[in-house]
Amino acid sequence: MAKSAAAAKKPVGLRMKQFFIDFGRQWEIQSMIWPGIIFMIIFCYVPIYGLTIAFKNYTVIDTLNSAPWVGLDNFKIIASDRYFWDSVVNTLGISFLKLAIGFVIPIILAIMIYELSMGRFKKIVQTISYLPHFLSWIVLGGMLITWFSTTGMFNQLLLDLGIISKAQNIMLDPGKYWWIAVLSDVWKEAGWGTILYLAIMAKIDPTYYEAAKIDGASRIRQIWNITLPNMKMIISLNLILTVSGLLGSNLDQTLVLINSQNREKAEVINSYVYRMGMTQGDFSYATAVGLGVSIVSVILLVFANKVTSKLNDNQSVL
């Protein structure tokens, strides 16, 4: 503490000289860090100035400075836009289902993989579960559209089992879209989501399990009392990030699966912003929506961090 205070009292010239001396000593490491910093400044911080569009009436013939200010008019339009609030309902519905199902399944799958004793079989299961993550939504969306079509595999299977008497295109049914979006996302990302959990479980001291076996603990009891407590911090971190992203439904998935028949249940905030900004050219309105969503996401992030810190003996994972 005293050393840092003394360093702060040094003249600016000496501090800059020391900075360049340290930079010269660490130029190999700095050469790898600074491109990332420059990239973030150009593509993450400089565009923040563009948020002023949310408070202007911006068109393609304007510049950021020449567009006239309209204050909070765009936000007032948002408050009375029925289609926007419909997209909010769809976003929250899909996101909460993904949170309830998609957050738990990777944990269960990771524990199941960890408990496998056959090394070769474990690798096969891991590879199969990871594979969908590396396929784009263009590919997976095309597969789902084909499978759920009137003559697709899913309808033929239900007909053969006698569950339905007439085939129908499931992708055109708005009532089923939320479940299609949630389950297809779980199918794609559940295996990939196990990586962090498996890495944490690999670091658990095996003597804990040996001691539990000596005490007569079953495998379920070992998982409950040893495995899950050691995963508590990473589970909390993933929960915080998931909750903060509740308003950020998967745009790629939506653009692939949405159609004119299921739009009323498929339109989410991200696709609505894309449609208003890129398709209809209302950049100010789209920016205002995006800004509002970002503010709410930050609030959710802080709230989730507070809640998880209470559950972790007031220890924050961020």
From TrEMBL:
Principal location: membrane
GO cellular component, one term: plasma membrane
GO BP term (any one): transmembrane transport
Superkingdom of the organism of origin: Bacteria
Subcellular location(s) per record: Cell membrane
Membrane-crossing segments per the record: 33-55, 92-114, 134-157, 177-202, 223-247, 283-304
Sorted UniProt keywords: Cell membrane, Membrane, Transmembrane, Transmembrane helix, Transport
Positions of the ABC transmembrane type-1 domain: 88-304
Keyword Membrane: yes
Pfam families: BPD_transp_1
Family: Belongs to the binding-protein-dependent transport system permease family.
UniProt protein name: ABC transporter permease subunit
